[in-house]
Amino acid sequence: MFDFEAISRAMSGQTVLCVGDLMLDEFVYGEVSRISPEAPAPVIAVRRSEINIGGAGNVARNIASLGGRCIFVGLIGEDAAGTVLTEALAKEAGIETVLVRDAARPTTRKVRFVSEQFSTHMLRSDWELAAPAAAAVEQQLIDAILPRLAQADIVLLSDYAKGVLTARVIRNVIDAARQAGKRVIVDPKSANLAIYRGATVLTPNRKEFAEATRSRADSQDSIAQAAPDAMYLADCEAMLVTQGERGMTLVTRDGGSIHVPALPVKVRDVSGAGDTVAAALALALAGGADWEGALRIASAAAAVAVGKTGTAIVRSAELRRRILPHASLAAEEKIVAAGGDIDAYLEEWRRQDLRIGFTNGCFDILHPGHVKVLTAARSTCDRLIVGLNSDASVKRLKGEGRPVQNERARAEVLAALEAVDLVAIFEENTPIELITKVRPSVLVKGGDYTREQVVGHEIVEAAGGEVVLVEILPGHSTTSLVARAREGQA
């Protein structure tokens, strides 16, 4: 089960050894209102500029901002850009930086000119030497990396093909990591995936994967078909292909395939989105998440990143809001009366390829046990529907004197919770008709039930969904709360 709260806590205690190509990212923002009289080129009136740590350095920053600790090893030149990066990294909390200097190459620097009124990149200027590091520099990198493996929970190689991750460096790091029992994530650049052999998972984007496999890679099926040969070549456990607005698809060596859709977001800048995915994936896996849970965390982190301008970092609180969003609707707008129409909600969510979850109950007096089940239920899905027994239904099930609160009051309390996306009231004794209509991907109940006792489990499992049982908190029961309250009144 995907328990975001538990994974989030675990992520904050993980150490990631990150090795890759460091860059200085500069963004120049302004307005374009005329064409130069000297040449047919737009003139940007500069309003402001920003300097960020980019490339693999952005991966390191995201690891730290998500609550992890990063040991970062990179390469810079003997120049002003290298000094700027050194000083900037020294100010970053949560990052232990080890930089090798190479006087024979410039520090990689990219300057982007951005039109603010059109939110578009107009021009990018690059200073770089995209060539493998010399043998002596390679050895310095290896000597810096290997002694620090023991401190890491997981290893991340961020390859931008600027010279740090040579074949020799890659081989030494992966072999040493495997010998030490450490998993290795690689964000690859080379189309020759064999140089990364032995890594745990590779995370190419769709274009990189298509070039490496000479496939179209334009659908989940085509990715799943091309991935096994690529995984055999790379001797890896899994291949994760990121596809921008199409989401991300992971194929495992045992033939399994998981697709996580992209979360709806207004895209402002895709710079560094892959860095964010790699950082979140590494921390989630190190924190104990399974493949699907790690993908959902990585997808949510990417959605936060592309909604920002520049080379952005994602913080734990932002990730939590994206996975467990605050209600965008007023509580009363999240309530559907018995017999009401929920089709519009279902159609919109299915159109967005969102994972729909369902749980149900009377929720007469909301207590911490209920909150735990609802939060855990929301962590398994993108949208959570809560089926709520009507007053008449509760009376039939619980007897005279129940419910203590009427259905409207119970529905409004549930709808006010951030974990709940929709409350659907039903008149029947069980929610079987509602489950049949919703066809949820995941059906959640408290652990005091067995799978066979969960109403609707046959329907959900027959459609390829799953039943999740959440461990309940001992000592919390609505019936006992009502009894104690009435004893106090006697």
UniProtKB/TrEMBL annotation:
InterPro entries the record matches: Bifunc_HldE, Carboh/pur_kinase_PfkB_CS, Cyt_trans-like, PfkB_dom, RfaE_dom_I, RfaE_dom_II, Ribokinase-like, Rossmann-like_a/b/a_fold
Domain (Cytidyltransferase-like): residue spans on this chain: 358-452
Presence of the UniProt keyword Repeat in the record: no
Chain residue ranges for the region called Ribokinase: 1-329
CDD domains: RfaE_like
Highest taxon in the source lineage: Bacteria
Region (Cytidylyltransferase): 358-490
Catalytic activity field: D-glycero-beta-D-manno-heptose 7-phosphate + ATP = D-glycero-beta-D-manno-heptose 1,7-bisphosphate + ADP + H(+); D-glycero-beta-D-manno-heptose 1-phosphate + ATP + H(+) = ADP-D-glycero-beta-D-manno-heptose + diphosphate
One of the record's GO molecular function terms: heptose 7-phosphate kinase activity
Keywords, comma-separated and alphabetical: ATP-binding, Carbohydrate metabolism, Kinase, Multifunctional enzyme, Nucleotide-binding, Nucleotidyltransferase, Transferase
Catalytic-site annotation from UniProt: D275
A single cellular component GO annotation: cytosol
GO biological process: ADP-L-glycero-beta-D-manno-heptose biosynthetic process; lipopolysaccharide core region biosynthetic process
Binding site for ATP: N205, R206, K207, E208
Residue span(s) of domain Carbohydrate kinase PfkB: 16-313
Pfam families, per the entry: CTP_transf_like, PfkB
E.C. designation(s): 2.7.1.167, 2.7.7.70
Involved pathway(s): Nucleotide-sugar biosynthesis; ADP-L-glycero-beta-D-manno-heptose biosynthesis; ADP-L-glycero-beta-D-manno-heptose from D-glycero-beta-D-manno-heptose 7-phosphate: step 1/4; Bacterial outer membrane biogenesis; LPS core biosynthesis; Nucleotide-sugar biosynthesis; ADP-L-glycero-beta-D-manno-heptose biosynthesis; ADP-L-glycero-beta-D-manno-heptose from D-glycero-beta-D-manno-heptose 7-phosphate: step 3/4
Quaternary structure and partners: Homodimer.
Purpose: Catalyzes the ADP transfer from ATP to D-glycero-beta-D-manno-heptose 1-phosphate, yielding ADP-D-glycero-beta-D-manno-heptose.
Family label: In the C-terminal section; belongs to the cytidylyltransferase family. In the N-terminal section; belongs to the carbohydrate kinase PfkB family.
PANTHER family: BIFUNCTIONAL PROTEIN HLDE (PTHR46969:SF1)
Record-given protein name: Bifunctional protein HldE
